[in-house]
Amino acid sequence: MKTILLTGGGGFIGSSLANRILQSRSERLIVLDALTYAGKEPAVSDTGRLEFWHGDVRNGELVESLVARSDVVVHMAAETHVTRSIFDDKLFFETDVLGTQVVANAVVRHQDRIERFIHVSTSEVYGNALSDAMDEDHPLNPMSPYASAKCGADRLVFSYWSTYGIPAVIVRPFNNFGPRQHLEKAVPRFITSCLLGEPITIHGDGSAARDWLFVEDHCDALEAVMDADLSQVAGEVFNLGTGQHRTIGEVAGLVRAAIPAAADLQAEYLSDRPGQVSRHTCDATKARRILGWTPRTSFEDGLDRTIAWYRDNSDWWDSMRWMRHIPIVTSDGKREMH
Ligand code: NAD
């Protein structure tokens, strides 16, 4: 039986991937997660194939001992919230860049065993869209500390492929949404505010647009990368997105329309977040061509499923209500809760 090491498996995307691996695949799964404010121990039915390690990706000895027992490494442990990276940037570089260096180094040392090293990067590395749809050759212009830390990690992994020949594959997912996403992120913040009968807060005028990818479609893509012929994917970067964008204002409107308790709630507009990206639209032609991947979930279906999950699981999120907002200095110099 093969073993997959998943870092960050206690987070939003990692917990979906952990469930997927345990429910529909046959590998043994090791999850390594520091259980920061953003992580929870995976709540999965025990198949006898899951081993959970509460630990830090910056701990070289621990990471090496886990990589040594693995065939596939999926690395997604990171600090992930753009606004929080403006409030407190240092940890982003320590975790996202140095943590990735530790994992990549362990992969180099155990190259004889590791069949694939999948690094989860982000579309944030691109900054503002300079073309209608952004392909993998779009310039890298990260616009926030989070984005630049992830960009450093992304290029670090590429350089380890180029220098040491490790079997690295980099994916750049666009904005994910779905169940179990932390309340600090826009979609769950909108949904829970509406369920609580509180006004939605929007950064800027709501015209910033993103390509919204349902988390299960992202997991499909990660499975496709695990199963692809290595010669087709090693050293490659794959964008993962739908090719369509929606503004933050539109998303807020759709959430409000779907929750009866929110019908009379007005949106509150805040100053813009510094380093705000105005638009991201994915060109995922390469993933379609090489991985045979295409997202299956429409935005409306994904949103309905996400709203239903938050409605039914308030126990999961109730204690993190206070973390929906973070104090930052905005682009016009005001201190605001974002
Ligand atoms: P998340 O914040 O929900 O989860 C991150 C997980 O990493 C948490 O469980 C946390 O405890 C863990 N972690 C943090 N620091 C750690 C450390 N030092 N050692 C071990 N574990 C640590 O994030 P997410 O939204 O699930 O994102 C997962 C990955 O996908 C990240 O690499 C992120 O950059 C990337 N990504 C996310 C999105 C998105 O829209 N959510 C989009 C593109 C890329």
How do the helices and strands line up, and which of them pair or pack?
Layout (H helix, E strand, L loop, with lengths): L2 E5 L4 H13 L3 E6 L16 E5 L5 H8 L4 E4 L6 H6 L2 H20 L6 E5 L24 H20 L3 E6 L1 E3 L8 H11 L4 E3 L5 E2 L1 E3 H13 L2 H4 L3 E4 L5 E2 H11 L9 E3 L14 H7 L7 H14 L1 H4 L9 E3 L5 E3 L1
Parallel strand pairs: 1-2, 1-4, 2-3, 4-5, 5-6, 6-11, 7-10, 8-13
Antiparallel strand pairs: 9-12, 14-15
Bound molecules: nicotinamide-adenine-dinucleotide.
Molecular structure report:
By secondary structure, the chain is an alpha/beta fold. The chain has 12 helices and 15 strands. The strands form 5 sheets. The protein has a 7-stranded parallel sheet, sandwiched between helices. The protein has a two-stranded parallel sheet with strand order 7-10. A hairpin with a 5-residue loop joins strand 14 and strand 15. Helix 1 packs across helix 7 and helix 6 packs across helix 11. The longest helix is centred in the first third of the chain and has 20 residues. The N and C termini lie far apart (46 Å). It binds nicotinamide-adenine-dinucleotide (NAD). Nicotinamide-adenine-dinucleotide binds next to helix 1, helix 4 and strand 7.
* Overall average pLDDT: 94
Report on the biggest sheet: 7 strands, parallel
Please state the oligomeric state of the protein chains shown: single chain
Structural class comes to alpha/beta
What is the CATH first-level class name of the domain at 3-177 and 214-240?
Alpha Beta
What CATH architecture label of the domain at 3-177 and 214-240 applies? 3-Layer(aba) Sandwich
Number of alpha- plus pi-helical segments: 12
Portion in beta strands: 15-25%
Looking at the structure, the CATH topology of the domain at 3-177 and 214-240 is Rossmann fold
- The CATH superfamily of the domain at 3-177 and 214-240 is identified as NAD(P)-binding Rossmann-like Domain
Which overall shape is indicated by the principal axes computed on the Cα atoms?
A: globular
**How far apart, in Å, are the first and last alpha carbons?**
46 Å
**How many beta-strand elements?**
15
Residue windows where pLDDT falls under 50 for at least 5 positions: none
Q: Would you list the SSEs in sequence order as H and E?
A: EHEEHEHHEHEEHEEEHHEEHEHHHEE
Helix content: 25-40%
Spatial order of the strands forming the largest sheet:
3-2-1-4-5-6-11
Rg from alpha-carbon coordinates: 19 Å
The molecules bound to the chains, other than polymers, are: nicotinamide-adenine-dinucleotide
